[in-house]
């Protein structure tokens, strides 16, 4: 594959390494919570949900700040800071003697995770508007490949104890920091930088440049509902696998790896072609509709073959977010790309706050009554609502902002 700028493969590799570190800990997290809190798996589901809330609250404030900092001082120092913070986060969790340490680690991760906005901003800096959907798809593919390797590695490392995957993740994050330090060029040129402004370093200020585009608010609303629905995987999948399917850490790890493989294939081979053929708006609908149907399928699927068939189909939901991101990026001028991506990160963090309160609790509530699909009932309803918003409210022609907006 030929890249149009040398920063692109470097950022993709950084995201790949980071997603390996993120995925590597997922298979063992439920058991670690059970061990540290001395609770049942059902109760650990709720605790895991609150840990996601702790992550998301921090992420909500950090996303727009780091995005605006990237517009002001450049992308490279912000990304470097995030990778160092991730290494500290995983080290904290590896050494955690109590459940409180896990929560502290999630707070650090909430700050570090906000660097995905500056990473997307790097791609927006160096990619023409008409090609951004395909490039953002490659970002998703890198994350997906990391999910092939990370959970599979985590399932294997679980044999050495619940702390081993966290140690490995800390090392990977440290390697990533060195990779960014020595290899990543700065892509935010001096002529496009703007002074850091606290009034724009929040979710409202970050989206202010978008408000000149008439359909932006509906697109943001659909994106928010979709993100809440999609959080059903990181928030509840490991717990769902144990409760509904009777899986151990290894089975959970392999299922996440299969999901990552399928999504990576779609994002690498299909996203760009789908956007070129159908346009971003219709590609969003295809992705969201695939997700909604798969969520519905998980409510009833209990056989191994059925679950893996749904995993294969669910890969097409990977079409949604790159298309949304490309649409919004086209509505925003070059000096505000970092703020936009930070705002999206903040919006996603609101979804992360809301999702555990809805999805984890729905799974736990149903499980106590012998029903193990409550999380996917909620996710399915949210995804179908997002599809309707896109179909009814997002107009075919996107207005592009040509001039910077103060």
CATH superfamily: MFS general substrate transporter like domains
Order of helices and strands: HHHHHHHHHHHHHHHHH
Number of domains: 1
Instruction: Please bin the fraction of helical residues.
Output: over 70%
For the residues shown, what is the average pLDDT?
80
Briefly note the structural class of the backbone.
mainly alpha
Largest sheet: none
> Would you identify the CATH architecture?
Up-down Bundle
Radius of gyration: 20 Å
Shape: globular
Briefly, what CATH class?
A: Mainly Alpha
Distance between the termini: 38 Å
Unreliable segments (pLDDT under 50, ≥5 consecutive)? 397-406
CATH topology: Growth Hormone, Chain: A
Please indicate the percent range of residues in DSSP E strands (runs of 2 or more).
under 5%
How many helices? The count is: 17
What's the number of extended β-strand segments?
A: 0
